[in-house]
Amino acid sequence: MKLKRVAVVGPAGSGRSFLINSLLGSKHVEHAVRASPVTLDISSHRDVVEVNGRRAVLELVDTPGFCGQGVILEEVQRDLKTKFKQIDKAVIVIAKGRLEPTEKIEIRSVLQFLDYKNNPEKIIIVLNDRREKGINQQQKENDLSNVLHMLGVEDYSIVNSKTQIPHLLPAVSLSNNEEGSFHSEIGMIQEFLLKETTTQDPIIQVRNSVGMTSRNVFSAQSMALLVLAAALVFGFLLNSYMDASVENYIEKLKTGNIKLEEDAVSQKSNIEQLETYQIKLKEEAVSDKKHIATLETHITKLKEEDDSNKISIEKLTIEKINLVDKDSSNKKQISTLETDTGKLKEESESNKNIISRFETYQTKLKEEADSNNISITKLTTDNINLENEVASEKEQISTLETAQAKLKEEDDSNNISIKKLTTDNRNLENEVA
Length: 433
Description:
Layout lengths: L2 E7 L6 H9 L18 E9 L2 E9 L10 H10 L3 E2 L1 E7 L5 H13 L9 E6 L8 H14 L5 E3 L10 E6 L6 H14 L9 E2 L8 H30 L2 H187 L1
Parallel strand pairs: 1-3, 1-5, 5-6, 6-8, 7-8
Antiparallel strand pairs: 2-3, 4-9
Helix pairs in contact: 6-7
């Protein structure tokens, strides 16, 4: 079964380990969502992967996240060239969000290291936006295009089906927003990694790798020519010694000289190519210098802001001291208030006892009042009856008084009659006498 070795690179916290676990179908690597790198050493993880009937052993090389603490991109590139015989393809993982200037520079450096313009079918860019929700496919592709333009990548094709436009750098937006979207995109990436390329040359190889400088390539080719020349000279000398023919030896030297001249022409061509590549590197270095100047300006602004922040911190420290003093005074006041509160609570408890006694007494008074109300009601009824009887008696008295008055009148009349009779009687007695 064929082995496909793929390097997975990207900034710290971009989701490289998560992607490795998703592509291999199981948890091979610890991963977490944070800015500091979880992976600190380069390592590889293998598993059998099958896509559309094609099976292969997929070996994913997990690299430390650059721009992370203690991670140097040049060391990661050197380890990729020295610790593995060859790297067939590469995946560049970028987290969705604002790219820091240092991340842009490092990602551009990785693209140049992999010679992405000449290896579009061996590199895929993955924009990891799996934590985003509620965006459609068009928005995902727009976000991916914006990131690629920021990195200066112009010739690319967005992978939104299981096809790829030849000669363009493929890119995919990895998300989990739509039904089945995440698994479909993982399948696209797996198919790309297992797909055979038009050229069998690996993207990274220990010898004569794309990332070697012109000096290293020139030194290697010069050494090869010197070894060849030494071998030819040794062969010619051995043949001349055995054949004892000077003419044959001269002919062979001429032949060797022709070959050396041909190699020199080839060497010149290689040097010209390297000089062209060196010019490109110088142009990119100028661009990097501009970026560095921008970063230095940004750093200066940050330093100014830091100085301003220090002044603010000093002011805040003074305010904090004042607040601490106020807090100490407040604590004393609070202590006094707590003492007063304790006394008030004691008085409140005493008052509660008094109130309780008053309530008990009030209850008794209410009970007595209720009893008195009953007595008063009864007395009121009796009073009404008495009043009625008094009224009746008053009427009787009035009647009696009327009768008495009549009797008095009759008595007065009788008295008059008696007096008259008495007088008459006396008169008669006098007459009789």
